[in-house]
Amino acid sequence: LQVKKYRVLFLRFTHEDLKAQKYLMGGIEQVIGLHKDVLMPKFAGILKLLYDMDILEEKALLEWADKVSRKYVSRELSQEMHSRAEPFIKWLKEAEEEESDSEDEDDNDLEIEYDDRAKASPLREQPKKTPAKPAVNHDEDGEDDLDIDAI
């Protein structure tokens, strides 16, 4: 998929513009309609990719999912796309509900203290440590033994 390659271009058109995102969804519907055999099975994955890359926002996807439209493709094709996207849309709604629940819980316990004065601490240079060489104890029998206490 070339979405990753052209992500910046997509973002220039759709960033924080719900109407542009809806038009993009219409264009995607048309492309899916043209290459139905290849792209229809991948439709939910395409939507997730566009969502993960911040090209389509959650609100645009949920509004698209609420209404089967025949503006860009036939109603039957649009219905099939909606049914293919249903698991992704369900996941999106559940994630939104969990997020709002956790925000409600966190807000009750959370107290933020803000201090606008920067805490300045002087930088100190650390002395460089040279690695110690292991001490070797020479015995009468000619073997090199490692002195554990010197480590």
Describe the structure.
This protein has 151 residues and is mainly α. It has a domain at 7-94: Serine Threonine Protein Phosphatase 5, Tetratricopeptide repeat, CATH 1.25.40. It has 6 helices and 2 strands, in the order ααααααββ. Strands 1-2 form a two-stranded antiparallel sheet. Helix 4 runs parallel beside helix 6 (75-109). The radius of gyration is 30 Å and the shape is elongated. The two termini are 58 Å apart. The mean pLDDT is 79.
Contiguous helical run count: 6
**Biggest sheet record:** 2 strands, antiparallel
- Report strand %: under 5%
CATH topology of one domain: Serine Threonine Protein Phosphatase 5, Tetratricopeptide repeat
- The helix-and-strand class reads mainly alpha
State the distance separating the first and last CA atoms. Answer: 58 Å
Protein name: W2 domain-containing protein
Pfam family, one: W2
GO cellular component, one term: eukaryotic translation initiation factor 2B complex
InterPro entries: ARM-type_fold, eIF2B_epsilon, W2_domain
Which key features would you list for this structure?
151 residues, mainly alpha, Serine Threonine Protein Phosphatase 5, Tetratricopeptide repeat, two-stranded antiparallel sheet, 55% helix, elongated
In summary, what is this structure?
This protein is mainly alpha-helical.
What is the element layout, followed by pairings?
Elements lengths: L6 H8 L3 H17 L1 H4 L3 H10 L5 H9 L8 H35 L26 E3 L5 E3 L5
Antiparallel strand pairs: 1-2
